[in-house]
Every structure is written in C-alpha cells, then in structure tokens.
Amino acid sequence: MENMMRQLINDVFYDLEEACAAGGEKLDAEILADVLGDRMYDMSEEYRTTPWEVRRAKTLKVAREYV
Fold it and tell me: Nearest CA to 19 among 28, 7, 27, 11?
C-alpha cells in the first residue's frame, strides 16, 4: 500500500505544490495526506477497509517524507 502511495505522490506532487503556491499556501504534510487519502480511497479496496485512524496515520507518515 505504501508503494502505491509513493507512486501517487510522484504523480501529483509538483502540480499540487504549484496549485498551493498559486493559492498563497505552502504544501504541507496535511494537505498532501488529504489528497493522497482521497486518491487511495478511490483506488484501493485494502485502503477502504482499513480503519480511518490507521489510514490517516499511514498517509501522514508517507506524506511527511516528501514535505
């Protein structure tokens, strides 16, 4: 599941960073984890069946590696 998260981050990171900057915000781990969680929820049955607290902890852990 973490490998899928990293691939998703690689796909969206620079566009998301640019969008945040255009809106006067700095991309942080919370924003990245929100986007990552939304994408993972749509794409992964394993992710959907994992309790929310565990999912959030995993997405934040991976997001913090990038920002």
Answer: 27
pLDDT digits (tens, 9 = 90+) for 11-60: 999 999 999 999 999 999 999 999 999 999 999 999 999 999 999 999 99
First to last CA, the chain: 19
The sign of the dihedral angle between the CA atoms of 17, 22, 28, 30 is negative
Per-residue exposure over 40-50, b if at least 16 CB sit within 10 Å of its own CB, e if not: beeebeebeeb
64 confidence band (pLDDT: 50, 70, 90): very high
The span from the CA of 45 to the CA of 24, in Å, is 35
Q: Is residue 14 within 8 Å of residue 37, measured between CB atoms? A: no
Report whether 8 contacts 37 (CB < 8 A).
Answer: no
